[in-house]
Each structure stands twice: as structure tokens, then as C-alpha cells.
Amino acid sequence: GAGVSQSPSNKVTEKGKDVELRCDPISGHTALYWYRQSLGQGLEFLIYFQGNSAPDKSGLPSDRFSAERTGGSVSTLTIQRTQQEDSAVYLCASSLEHQRTDTQYFGPGTRLTVL
Amino acid sequence: KNQVEQSPQSLIILEGKNCTLQCNYTVSPFSNLRWYKQDTGRGPVSLTIMTFSENTKSNGRYTATLDADTKQSSLHITASQLSDSASYICVVSSGYSSASKIIFGSGTRLSIRP
User: Fold this and answer.
1) pLDDT tens across B11-36, in order?
2) Which of residues 25-54 of A touch B (CB under 8 A)?
3) Would an 8 Å CB–CB cutoff place A16 in contact with chain B?
4) Residues B87, A61, A71, CA angle at the centre, nearest 5°?
5) How sure is the predictor about A72, in pLDDT bands with cuts at 50, 70 and 90?
């Protein structure tokens, strides 16, 4: 595709429910990143994939968060038993590889609201 | 502790004027420093990427500098335009292995007034 796409664009859920967020990276990009941007806060790194493997999961805030990537393309971020503090914009980015100078291209984000 | 601090928190300038945004970091080992522009409701867009050996990089009216000794970076915007109104985020990556850390500054919110 022309850019990174994410779905849904908005998600409202009740506390305790599970949610799944999807990211479609730019075709051919092997590196994929998930970030979170809470209201009034800076961006927070969650996890990244090189191909289908996730070398660095240290940014995931709790064991309720998990992510997977299949076929070296689409990635899903799953949040189980959502809490109100999970409310944020979840951004996905991709780059050709996980190299120091590769540009990361961001998607428009998914705005998650937990009631 | 790895940190990235940006200043000022917010800035208002008149259209056509220049401005400079600051980024100080305490990240080690240093891998690269990136400046992003983020319009309200949109994802960040990369402006510049600099590694240890680079001390200046330009992208149109945007010029970034890096002083790896003092661990400071600046983003200079020349002849500002209304479309420059956005948040500017400094991001520093740590480490050289695949398990690198990515640390974000809290951003500077820039408003350009006509």
C-alpha cells in the first residue's frame, strides 16, 4: 500500500473486555513498531518486530499486552482485560529494516477509549 | 536512567520568523537521534535522522544539529509557515543490537501566528 494503515481508527470498549488492534505496514518493510501515546503524554515505545520475531518486548506495560506478526506483514496488538489507563492512541510504524538510519513511517493510529 | 528532555514545552512565533527547539538526552549507548513533526490527530513524520558521526542535517527549512559530546540537539526552523504549527518530537535510540531502546521526548508544541 501507499502507507502504513491501522484499524480500527477508533475503538470504544468496556473495562475488562479484550481488544485487538491491527497494523498493515508498508509493503516490503521488515521492521514494524508499536507505540502508545496517552493524552497529554509523549510517545511510548511498546514493541518492535524484525520479520516475525520480536527481539524487544520490554516496552509492553503488562502481561495483558501481547503482539504478533505473521507472514512478515500484518501485526496485531492485543490487550486483554482492558483497564481505563489503557486509553490512548496506539501508533504503528514500519521501516525497511531495523537499521540506525532507516526512516520509520507512521500510521494514523487507533484511538482506544476504555469506559 | 535514559531520558530525553525537550524545551521549550510550547512556543508561539509569528509567521516568517525563525525558531530553535532544543533536545537534551542522557541516553547511553547512543545509536541515533531523530526529529519528528506530528500534526494534531496524525502520526509523526520523520524530519531528520542523525548518527553519532553527524553534527548537522537539513531537510528543507528544517536544520538539525547534534553535539554528541554535550548530548544536545537542536532543530532550527527557518522562515516559519503556518503549516509548521505542530508538535516536534525528539527521539533517541540506545544500543546497537537488535534490542535497542527508543526513548521519546515529550515534544515542543509550536504555534505559528499570521
Assistant:
1) 999 999 999 999 999 988 888 999 99
2) 33, 35, 41-45, 48, 50
3) no
4) 85
5) confident
